[in-house]
Amino acid sequence: MIAVVPVRAGELPVGAAEAVAEAGGNVVLAGDGTDAAAEALTSEAPLLVRQVVCAELGSYAPAAWARRLSRRLDAEDVVILPAVPDGRDLAPRIAASLGRPLLAGAQEIRPAGAVVLRWGGLQLVELTVEGPFVATLLPGSRSVAAAPSGLVPISLAPADETETSDDGAACADAMSLEVLAPDPAAVDLAEAAKIIAGGAGLGSHDEFATLARVAEAIGASVGATRVVTDGGILGHARQIGTTGATVRPRLYVALGISGAAQHVGGIGEPLHVVSVNLDASCPMMAMADLAVVSDAAATLEALADLLGLRDGALVGEHASAEGDDD
Amino acid sequence: MTERFDVVVVGAGPAGSMAALTLARAGRSVCLLERGPFPGSKNLYGGVIYGRVLDEILPRWIDEAPIERWVTRRVTMVLTETQSLAVDFRSSAWGAKPYNGATALRPEFDSWLASEAEKAGAVLVCSTTATGLLLDERGRTTGVRTDRPGGDIEAGVVIACDGVNAFLAKQAGLTSTEDPSHYTLGVKEVLALAPDEIERRFGLEPGEGADFEVIGGTGGIAGGGFLYTNRETVSVGLVLSIEGLSRSETRPEQLLAEFKSHPAIRPLVAGGDVVEYGAHLIPEAGLAMMPRLAGDGILVAGDAAGMCLAAGIWLEGVNFAMASGAAAGEAAAEALERGDTSAGGLRGYRKRLEANFVLADHRRLKRAPHLVLSDRMQHQYPQLVCNLVEEIFTVRNPSPKQGIVAQARQERRKAGVRLRDLARDGWSAWRTFR
Amino acid sequence: MRRPLFAACWKVVELRSSIDPLTGEVTPDHLSLGVSRSDEAALEWALRSAARWGGGVRLVTAGSAKTEAALRQGAAVGATELLRVDLPIDWPSDWIARAVAPHLADADLVWCGDMSTDRGSGAFPAYLAAELGISQALGLIGVELNGPDGPAGSDGPDKGLGFEALRRLDGGRRERLSIGARAVLSCEGATTRLRRASLDGVLVARDAPIAVRVGSRGTTVAPAVASIAPFRPRARVVEPPAGPTARERIRSLTGADAAGRTARAITLNPREAAVAILEALGSWGELPAGLSGERAGDLP
Ligand SMILES: Cc1cc2nc3c(=O)[nH]c(=O)nc-3n(C[C@H](O)[C@H](O)[C@H](O)COP(=O)(O)OP(=O)(O)OC[C@H]3O[C@@H](n4cnc5c(N)ncnc54)[C@H](O)[C@@H]3O)c2cc1C
Ligand SMILES: Cc1cc2nc3c(=O)[nH]c(=O)nc-3n(C[C@H](O)[C@H](O)[C@H](O)COP(=O)(O)OP(=O)(O)OC[C@H]3O[C@@H](n4cnc5c(N)ncnc54)[C@H](O)[C@@H]3O)c2cc1C
Ligand SMILES: Nc1ncnc2c1ncn2[C@@H]1O[C@H](COP(=O)(O)O)[C@@H](O)[C@H]1O
Predict the structure, then answer these.
(1) CB contact, 8 Å: C269 with chain B?
(2) ipTM > 0.90 for the complex
(3) B260 and chain A: CB distance < 8 Å anywhere?
(4) Is there a contact between C186 and C125 (Cβ–Cβ < 8 Å)?
(5) Does A189-324 carry CATH code 3.40.50.1220?
(6) Of B325, B323, B327, which is closest to residue B351 (Cα–Cα)?
(7) Percent above pLDDT 70 for chain A
(8) First and final CA of chain A: distance in angstroms?
(9) Which residues of B touch C267 (CB under 8 A)?
(10) Does some domain include residue C248?
């Protein structure tokens, strides 16, 4: 098994150490600034890394990289990439050039298959494959700190021309103009100690406007699930999760959030979690200190009310609302 | 560009789909508009439907309609805070053809009915809201405006089946009342349970269903409750007086939670995960709120015309909607045939409703809503009968048993019910329901 | 000069499905058959590409005949060609891409959604690009079609067929890309909204023709499903416990000192729920000065 970790300007992506751990400590760092990345990796998880190969391939170009890595990877039965944007982008290209199946979005990868997430992370499917394959591992799936200590001393193989093959054919790739730092509009989120977040069960624009006011009143930042940002209710910068902002709050309040792995993978390990949901058995409820079965929008309204942010009779409003449930 | 159809039917609920089906079969071009992404998507889940009206129009409905369970057990229950008294009726005849009532999920049922209309040739257009009527200079309805770009549809007749808000009937000036006492709020939860668990709890054979109608149990607010079994869910809900609700300042969800925890209800629903919650208005006042049913170029059917029969132990809207929709469709076809779609030309609609059960039932039961929602019916009588029965069945040996009549008198006094009122209510109940 | 051709790929699936929390079994809701927000956005970008550079829009889906009603909705908003590749929708992504690719060999820009509702791997667009031997730009969160022309790709029909886009990276970072034809793009649902079909469009699309091609199996090994289950986090390996005595080590291992997680959820009405939340935040010291959880409890 071997991990392939795409590197941009010496920076490791989220989930790099997990992918390396899953691959038993063997990794190809591919990209630009791989030496710096190797140093970062070995200092982040020194016990974990057995062998690092640095493949200096220049700036990100999935088609060209896949081709240039294929000879080196052909010898490996299982190739693992982190399921972050660059990894998800590159993995099918590698699988295609190796002519192997891809087991995408795995929670766990084994020598003869993987457990992958489906249906927005609510279902686990155990897949088995005869022969070699490529897989992507979702960040947040496993711990890395306590992996068994390295059996073989760390060896840093130099970037070696023979590691890559390049038959000279032109590979079409889009051109990267620049990498932008996290959206300033969401910097508060990354550093927030308190986050109050809404999901598909909270509602739409009106409820999220109320959410913003309640958050302000209790000194928290607003987050959301991907369903919400996809729906255009909040900007994508507010999306929390493995493909959005990864946050490390002390307090996490989840309103109408099911707790899909890709969401929870981005919230760190808060000291306290509150979850409001109609479904008592969803994963978000299972990880909450205070798990309340209640309507999320109505609870938020009541919170706004208690915090003195609004007035008006709740019942009157309900009854005069349109007769239909939209 | 403006489209033209013989008829445009607004709303693909039971009323609208039946109207469209009837017209398409009569060879008319008909456009059936639905604002939801599919028919039934906006309609509350689960309830009991009665299909007799379908026998003639869709004779194979028993085999083809998406039925959850055939109702073979019907329970009418009276609740006080701690007591319950039920009349529990079972009929094995209801479990075989031609059947009586059935539980059905509205997204499935409404979609099925609309697809039958489509098969007959109606043009179903979903995700499209009728935003208003097109009127000519003399105020006659000539079509509808929709929220789609280029969305005007001209038609000889518009049939408004847009449900309880009756927005189009109001615009046409056929109705003006917006008296809140004419409406109740229905709230409902759908709880998931395994089919065999439902059969065990409700004492049913596989495929059979139960229908519970409950008086009381609404936390002092006028209304009632219900409980229906679907295949793998149970629908539980309350019908609440809107005035009572706003006066009490309790939220309907809370009342529903209390209802579900009543000792007589809890064992039936305990442990079921909520898979859906919704609230919807119900036109309650029957005849008292019915609009004029026809204007120039427009007919009103179903809930939009207040056709729903909501009278305590009955909550039947779907069959009234289907029957009125079919009647509207027939009348419109007839009017188009004769080339007179004025209010006069559409008179056949009312005639048809008079001739079948729709208006007859509404006439017979016209006092029922008032009676059922009255304070005595809601509070004092349930308390009275429950206490009485409790007294009768409480064994107090060695004290001797009291006569039932004496006990009844005593309980009536305790409940503060005057004999005169009891007599009057008894009489009006007799006249209402006989 | 050849007229450019734009394409959009739609995966038509049951959008709403219930997943049994005990067995993980999926019950698809057949009434929810449709496409995701991101697939809708993909078609909108294809339509806008055609508006910008001229040319037609081919809408493609791979799946069974039951997808056709949804496909026609694409014609209602302006797709000029509808194509269905007949194959089982649960095939591996690479097989599907291989079956679809021959029908997109003449497309200049192919727009996809970033990930499907059921599989959610985002792998199809990359496989498609690999099959077609063209470039890919996946997971776009911003598209600037009307900006200055980017560099044209090597075999684009028109040097003008280039644009800039923003792609999501991990950790909140983003990447600005210059993209030229030919390419496969995938976009997130929030990038744009699909335009609303006119009434006329809807009525005409009811009879829009759909070309059907048969897709054949791929050549890679198809993974076999060994089991399905509801989501459970993977067992975590924890650090060896710290602490001088065995007792302390056990306490730290079992989390006896840490705040306990609730064993079960409580059902409350919204007001009680709000009060409980404020009380909890107060007791954890998470309410700003001036607000106190206890006070919340006293409120009516
Ligand atoms: C590769 C990949 C990457 C992804 N990355 C991310 C990511 O970074 N971040 C992210 O968030 N998601 C991500 N997702 C999506 C993720 O899998 C889930 O689909 C998403 O997190 C679900 O969001 P949700 O909880 O808002 O919606 P749902 O899963 O639909 O849950 C809604 C919840 O609300 C509850 N509810 C409904 N009505 C009410 C009510 N009235 N009151 C209270 N509760 C109610 C329901 O019971 C349910 O639990 C990713 C998916 C994939 C495949
Ligand atoms: C909680 C509850 C429980 C009930 N239980 C039962 C029961 O057990 N048995 C029973 O028989 N009845 C029951 N009813 C009553 C029953 O639901 C209604 O009487 C019945 O649905 C009326 O049918 P309809 O076609 O007139 O209207 P609806 O079913 O309301 O259909 C109206 C349709 O029009 C559409 N529409 C509305 N406005 C527009 C517009 N402007 N443009 C386009 N489309 C529009 C709506 O989306 C909807 O699909 C119950 C009602 C409630 C609220
Ligand atoms: N069967 C299919 N037919 C057409 N397009 C598809 C199909 N499967 C996936 N796609 C496209 O690829 C995107 C990502 O899907 P996936 O790779 O399954 O996550 C979808 O949003 C579609 O645009």
Answers:
(1) yes
(2) no
(3) no
(4) yes
(5) yes
(6) B327
(7) 85
(8) 51
(9) 257
(10) no
